[in-house]
Amino acid sequence: MDLTVALVIGLSCLLLLSLWRQNSGRGKLPPGPTPLPIIGNFLQIDVKDIRQSLTNLSKVYGPVFTLYLGTQPTVVLHGYEAVKEALIDHGEEFSARGRFPVVEKVNKGFGISLSNGSRWKEIRRFTLMTLRNLGMGKRNIEDRVQEEAQCLVEELRKTNGSPCDPTYILGCAPCNVICSIIFQKRFDYNDQEFLNLMEKLNETMKILSSPWIQVCNNFPALIDYCPGSHNRVIKNMAYVQSYLMEKIKEHQKSLDATNPRDFIDYYLIKGKQENHSQPSEFTLENLSITVNDLFGAGTETTSTTLRYALLLLLKHPHVTAKVQEEIDRVVGRHRSPCMQDRSSMPYTDAMVHEVQRYIDLIPTNLPHAVTSDIKFRNYLIPKGTTVLTSLSSILKDSKEFSDPETFDPAHFLDEKGNFKKSDYFMPFSTGKRMCAGEGLARMELFLFLTTILQNFKLKSLIHPKDIDITPVYSGFASLPPTYQLCFIPV
């Protein structure tokens, strides 16, 4: 009996402490639903469709509101004005990275995606400079992408017009581009080592977007004490990191400081130049995780977008026909498409933008955090508070896009059919934490898609009206359903 009483008293104290912690700061934070002890507002969030949950809550509490996903407050920014005000107008204060516990188990605060403070600034500055040195945004990177696009076409020809699932073929192309930048190597599409890497990356993206991972990220204790698919993510990321570490060791043996070949060489040279009397960020552990970040971000996001693009083009054959007519007219059949063509291909450019807008690949962005106490719209957000920015609310804004739930390239065209830019086009986020590889990704999407459509007609196995384009997951990322199609040579 005494033990029972003690347990009840202890549990009651925990609940009261939780309530006190949650309510003590609510007078300063933006409004939001009343949280329950320990679990906060978690029951008010649909982990299968977080973006819709945030939209519903914004209708009640406005564009800036507070959720407790567990015991800690999270400030949600919903809509273009709120996100722009935070990430651009107050870019420095909102530039920290919020927690992503499942991935942090492997990254441990290193790399470029989840690091913070001076480490993040130093590694990001180095990464952007090195990518420019390696030709990012210049002709030699475009040449690599064009060459890979031709390899992709040859691989698609081998299907002989038979039904195929394009997942791995479309993953290999962007993966080879990033491999050539990181460690100056491309793989044959049937290389088993390469296919193993692709499988790990693809599986990891699926699991990270599943409801269970949304639960784990908000209740991190589950990661250490519960079985589940999060362990598979950790295992896969460790596998890729181990593979990349082997490449780093090979580079150490063959390094010529006067002739850097790739990203790893530039990093190793930088590490040797550092003043070793002071702590350096340019360690091998930081290199392996930075390269892992580039490898994952540079492969899976682009391949998922390509996969979704082909599904949308199957669903909307009239769009495909207009794009192919423009390709025939501007590029023809006897040379490869190039980035210079884009300005003469407004409909194709609009189609690529519309794919990215419509699929809403990373609905709630990677989490941000504030670097200091900040007064924002008459609220006080304490230093370290996690901030979620709803990219969905911007990409699907009905004031900017006339029919946001419909796939229509006209969203990016003016009355004369010219390409029309939009400040609301934020699939890569914005501000100081925006995607470092945006230029490469946009180049790949344009060149891979135009090269495929230059060489093949896309044939669906079912009638377009029966094609389901609903994402199978919409957690961390929005992933398309699996499907098959035929690539018919033209």
Automatic annotation (TrEMBL):
Keywords: Endoplasmic reticulum, Fatty acid metabolism, Heme, Iron, Lipid metabolism, Membrane, Metal-binding, Microsome, Mitochondrion, Mitochondrion inner membrane, Monooxygenase, NADP, Oxidoreductase, Signal. The omega-1 hydroxylase activity is stimulated by cytochrome b5. It catalyses: an organic molecule + reduced [NADPH--hemoprotein reductase] + O2 = an alcohol + oxidized [NADPH--hemoprotein reductase] + H2O + H(+); tetradecanoate + reduced [NADPH--hemoprotein reductase] + O2 = 13-hydroxytetradecanoate + oxidized [NADPH--hemoprotein reductase] + H2O + H(+); (5Z,8Z,11Z)-eicosatrienoate + reduced [NADPH--hemoprotein reductase] + O2 = 19-hydroxy-(5Z,8Z,11Z)-eicosatrienoate + oxidized [NADPH--hemoprotein reductase] + H2O + H(+); dodecanoate + reduced [NADPH--hemoprotein reductase] + O2 = 11-hydroxydodecanoate + oxidized [NADPH--hemoprotein reductase] + H2O + H(+). Pathway: Lipid metabolism; fatty acid metabolism. InterPro entries: Cyt_P450 (IPR001128), Cyt_P450_CS (IPR017972), Cyt_P450_E_grp-I (IPR002401), Cyt_P450_E_grp-I_CYP2E-like (IPR008070), Cyt_P450_sf (IPR036396), Cytochrome_P450_fam2 (IPR050182). It is an enzyme of class 1 (oxidoreductase). Residues 1-25 form the signal peptide. It is a peripheral membrane protein. Its EC number is 1.14.13.n7, 1.14.14.1. Heme binds at residue 435. It comes from the Eukaryota. Its cofactor is heme. GO terms for biological process: fatty acid metabolic process; xenobiotic metabolic process. A cytochrome P450 monooxygenase involved in the metabolism of fatty acids. Mechanistically, uses molecular oxygen inserting one oxygen atom into a substrate, and reducing the second into a water molecule, with two electrons provided by NADPH via cytochrome P450 reductase (NADPH--hemoprotein reductase). Catalyzes the hydroxylation of carbon-hydrogen bonds. Hydroxylates fatty acids specifically at the omega-1 position displaying the highest catalytic activity for saturated fatty acids. May be involved in the oxidative metabolism of xenobiotics. This is Cytochrome P450 2E1. It comes from Nannospalax galili (Northern Israeli blind subterranean mole rat). The gene is LOC103732440.
